[in-house]
Design brief:
The structure holds two protein chains of two kinds.
Chain A: E1 2-10, E2 13-19, E3 32-36, E4 47-50, E5 53-55, E6 60-66, H1 70-75, E7 85-90, E8 104-110, H2 116-126, E9 130-137, H3 146-150, E10 154-159, E11 166-167, H4 170-176, E12 183-187, H5 190-200, E13 204-208, E14 224-226, E15 236-238, E16 245-247
Parallel strand pairs in A: 8-9, 8-12, 9-10, 10-11, 12-13
Antiparallel strand pairs in A: 1-2, 2-6, 3-4, 3-7, 5-6, 13-16, 14-15
Chain B: E1 6-8, E2 11-13, E3 17-19, E4 42-43, E5 60-63, E6 66-69, H1 78-89, E7 96-100, H2 105-115, E8 121-127, H3 138-142, H4 144-157, E9 162-165, H5 173-182, E10 187-190, E11 194-197, E12 212-216, H6 221-232, E13 239-241, H7 248-257, E14 261-264, H8 267-270, H9 274-289, H10 300-310
Parallel strand pairs in B: 3-14, 4-7, 7-8, 8-9, 9-10, 10-13, 13-14
Antiparallel strand pairs in B: 1-2, 5-6, 6-12, 11-12
Helix pairs in contact in B: 2-4, 4-5, 6-7, 7-9
The chains are: A alpha/beta, B alpha/beta.
The complex binds flavin-adenine dinucleotide (FAD), flavin mononucleotide and FE2/S2 (inorganic) cluster.
């Protein structure tokens, strides 16, 4: 696919918009793609990155990623009009229709788990669902898309160091929320997902998981987790092809 | 396509290219990308008598031009592999090579005897070389006498030819190859992964929860070539070569070293279309190199010298 725009939103956080036919296959927020960050064997494996938003008629989609290790740093050097090798869309995303018209949904993102919530939020709003966003970041400079989310619904920010918004974690904000909500959609680091499961497991709670991947399509058994109804047995789910989004309790975090 | 066809014990291959065990599941995922019928064969994921969950995650870690894996032979067990996976694969016109694993000889015998009776299973690949299971596995693959004994026991019960998959984690690969040949192996597949490790810079601890894992990918290609080169000159059974293959050029190199067919593993993860692409490229490459048939390439690295000395005008 072809690079349309590529810009740094915050230190080391990049927004990359690509154009190509693949976009026509994107059906659900929360799906991801496997990105080949360079040609050749170095680095060898593709990198899983969430689809942050897509536009089928324009054949465009956007991802937001943190340039951290070898692969993502190389990806961040791609320039406009260059080609990027994308495999996807992959996996099962957020079940948008679980939140009904007139209801309120809480969207909870942590750090680089925030991006896939953007497409989700747009689709929920289009369906007449009221959305509340609770987004957690390390520090003020790491925040991105606050304005974009604010246009769709109430947006609360938490920073670990207290440099912006509420000091603490996303759960610090949620514990104090006055509004009612029936559904929670969440993506972020595993400790955050665990805290949500422990505190809000009785709600309709959907979690998007992260795991190290080989193939990304369900063939290599790298990304397997135990299921909630058989926590030590032989049943399993693959994060890449059964997930990455699961209902809370469906798999062991 | 006949210039790519290869005849091996139990296997009439349309072409010498097949996905390697553990890198293609049981084929379902890749069937979304291309018609499996075009493959020479399929080596399915290791099968053990009982289901196995495998190791905790993280199960993979990237390395320079390669990756480590410690899946731990996760599979649904013999019964389900036969009733669900092999039955499904039966809808395709492609020979299956069943990868047989276990932690004791009786496990290998049990799996081999049942799975070799399934009509689309045309050969067995005896996995005595998996580095990621605690008991057995690799021990079978590193002691020549033990390897020979497992091979013999499996040969007695198998209804189809038996290929033994050699571990590169030995000091003398030729000795291992000869031992399993004596045990009655019909062919060899090589190489399995090399035991390796990666550490996390921040925690100082291994990235893989199993601590060590098997190295695969382009990084191991020179090791595989060297071992196939040595072994192919010392045994009279054919070799299916693997280890880092990603292009048609790699395939020819493996043939030159002494392979009669090849398997592609890790490269499937990077490019799901890698097998069809290689199969399509091979005839063009044969033209460029001036070969009529791919089997002319087998063992060229060491046969050529022989041909020159025998040459009489
Ligand atoms: C379903 C899914 C969606 C994701 N979406 C996003 C996103 O939208 N934006 C974003 O910035 N990041 C996302 N990630 C995390 C992202 O995949 C890693 O940050 C990235 O792979 C790291 O690559 P690197 O080259 O920077 O690191 P390296 O250290 O060079 O990576 C080495 C290896 O480890 C793997 N790896 C390292 N960290 C992670 C991780 N956290 N999760 C999975 N694999 C990892 C890499 O894929 C690679 O195989 C997602 C992960 C998953 C599983
Ligand atoms: C994720 C993964 C799983 C594997 N599982 C098996 C297995 O179940 N049985 C087996 O004999 N080899 C297994 N292997 C080894 C491969 O079949 C192959 O021998 C090895 O990876 C070298 O080839 P490559 O470099 O092309 O991957 C596995 C390799 C990988 C990367
Ligand atoms: S990454 Fe290969 S099965 Fe999920």
């Amino acid at each position: 696919m072809k690079v349309l725009t590529h810009k740094e939103l915050a230190p080391s956080i990049f927004e990359l918009t690509l154009q190509g036919e693949l976009v026509s296959e994107m059906k659900q927020p929360g799906q991801f793609v496997q990105v080949k960050t360079t040609e050749g064997a170095e680095p060898l494996l593709r990198r899983p990155i969430s689809i942050s938003s897509y536009n089928s008629s324009e054949k465009q989609f956007t991802m937001i990623y943190r340039a951290e290790g070898k692969g993502t740093t190389l990806l961040s050097q791609r320039k406009q009009a260059e080609a990027v090798d994308i495999l996807g869309p992959l996996g099962n995303g957020f079940p948008v229709h679980e939140a009904k018209e007139g209801e309120t949904a809480l969207l909870v993102g942590g750090g680089i788990g925030v991006p896939p919530l953007y497409q989700l939020s747009q689709m929920l709003v289009a369906n007449g669902v009221r959305v509340i966003h609770v987004l957690g970041f390390q520090t003020k400079s790491a925040i991105f898309y606050e304005k974009e989310f604010s246009e769709l619904g109430d947006t609360h920010i938490a920073t670990v160091d207290g440099s912006y918004g509420t000091k603490g974690f996303v759960t610090t904000v949620i514990d104090k929320l006055e509004q009612e909500f029936a559904t929670i959609f969440s993506c972020g680091p595993t400790p955050m997902l665990k805290a949500l499961e422990a505190g809000y497991g009785e709600k309709r709670l959907y979690l998007s998981l992260e795991e190290r991947m080989g193939c990304g399509i369900g063939a290599c058994f790298a990304c397997v987790c135990h299921t909630g109804d058989d926590p030590t047995g032989f049943s399993y789910k693959k994060v890449c092809s059964d997930g990455p989004v699961f209902r809370a309790g469906e798999v062991i975090l | 396509m006949s210039r790519l066809s290869v005849e091996l014990p139990g296997l009439h291959l349309k072409n010498p290219v097949m996905p390697a065990s553990g890198c293609f599941g049981f084929g379902r995922e890749y069937s979304q990308f291309f018609n499996l019928d075009i493959l020479g064969a399929i080596m399915i994921k290791a099968t053990t008598p009982e289901p196995r969950f495998g190791n905790p995650t993280p199960r993979v870690a990237e390395t320079s031009s390669g990756m480590l894996n410690a899946i731990g032979l996760q599979n649904p067990g013999l019964e389900k592999v036969i009733s669900e996976e092999l039955a499904w694969l039966g809808g395709y016109d492609v020979p299956i090579i069943a990868n047989v694993a276990g932690s004791q000889i009786t496990d290998y015998v049990k799996v081999a005897s049942d799975i070799s009776k399934v009509p689309n299973v045309k050969a067995l690949e005896l996995n005595i070389s998996c580095p990621n299971v605690k008991e057995g596995g690799i021990a079978f693959g590193t002691v020549p006498e033990v390897a020979k004994e497992v091979t013999k026991a499996v040969k007695e019960v198998s209804s189809v030819p038996v290929y033994v998959k050699l571990s590169p984690n030995v000091s003398n690969i030729v000795e291992m190859a000869k031992a399993v040949e004596e045990g009655g192996a019909d062919g060899l597949t090589m190489i399995n992964t090399l035991v390796g490790m990666r550490l996390d810079l921040k925690t100082g601890k291994p990235i893989l929860s199993n601590r060590t894992g098997g190295l695969s990918g382009p990084a191991i290609k020179p090791v595989a070539l060297r071992m196939i080169y040595e072994v192919s000159q010392q045994v009279s059974i054919p070799i299916i070569g693997m280890g880092g293959i990603a292009t048609a050029e790699d395939v020819i190199e493996f043939f030159y070293a002494g392979a009669s067919a090849v398997a592609v593993g890790t490269a499937n993860f990077v490019d799901p279309f890698v097998c069809p692409t290689i199969i399509e490229e091979l005839p063009k490459l044969l033209d460029e190199l001036g070969f009529d048939h791919i089997s002319e390439c087998t063992g060229r690295s060491w046969k050529q010298n022989e041909a020159v000395t025998n040459y009489r005008p």
